[in-house]
Amino acid sequence: MATWTLDTVHSEVTFKVKHLVISSVTGKFKSFEGTVESDKEDFTDARINFSADVDSIDTGNEQRDGHLKSPDFFDAASHSKITFVSTAVTKKGSDYLIQGDLTLRGTTKPVELHAEFGGIQKDFYANTVAGFELSGKINRKDFGLHWSAVTETGGIVVSDEVRLAVNAELIKKA
Q1: How many other C-beta atoms can be found within 10 angstroms of the C-beta atom of residue 145?
Q2: Are the beta carbons of 137 and 161 closer than 8 angstroms?
Q3: How far apart are CA 74 and CA 128, in angstroms?
């Protein structure tokens, strides 16, 4: 069994959500960790475990970050982690479809992520490294993030759809 760990220095976990329906706000989680266990070289039997610290959310605006950590959204005081555990990994050409259970704010729902495989190489320290770019979409309200507001002209302040993007570099444990 090979175990791969997420290299947090060379990885990022980001999201985008429409603001006022006309533009997107991008955010990221600065503290996260993950492992992939696989017996197969092609990762088709992979078991993926991932978590992110809600308190590490960063949208570039301290006031907005505070609101996102509040009970209106993630409720970080009661639900400090976002987790993902894979249930199936299917190879699609050179890429993958990853199915799993995402838990936000104490609610667990199945999600699908598309993973573009970047390849495997040796790094400067002779470690075996694999790269993936993952993407997916969720509806925030499915996970209990129901806060909403409408502008004076009837515009929605925050979209329900959240686009996820993860650039993952994994290091194979010796």
Answers
A1: 22
A2: yes
A3: 36
User: Residue type at 56?
Assistant: S
pLDDT of residue 40: 87
At 140, give phi and psi (nearest 5°).
Answer: -60, -30
DSSP 55: G
- Domain containing residue 27: CATH number: 2.40.128.110
Answer whether 94's CB lies under 8 Å from 117's CB: yes
- 135-169 residue pLDDT tens: 999 988 888 776 665 545 444 456 777 899 999 99
Spatial distance between the Cα atoms of 16 and 24, rounded to a whole number of angstroms: 6
Asked if 19 and 158 touch (Cβ cutoff 8 Å), the reply is yes
Query: Would you give the DSSP letter of residue 156?
Result: B
**Overall domain count for the chain:** 1
Could you tell me the pLDDT band of residue 119, with boundaries at 50, 70 and 90? very high
Answering whether pTM is above 0.85, one says yes
Name beta bridge partners: 115: 96, 134
What value does the CA radius of gyration of the chain take, rounded to a whole number of Å?
A: 17
Domain extent at residue 160: 2-172
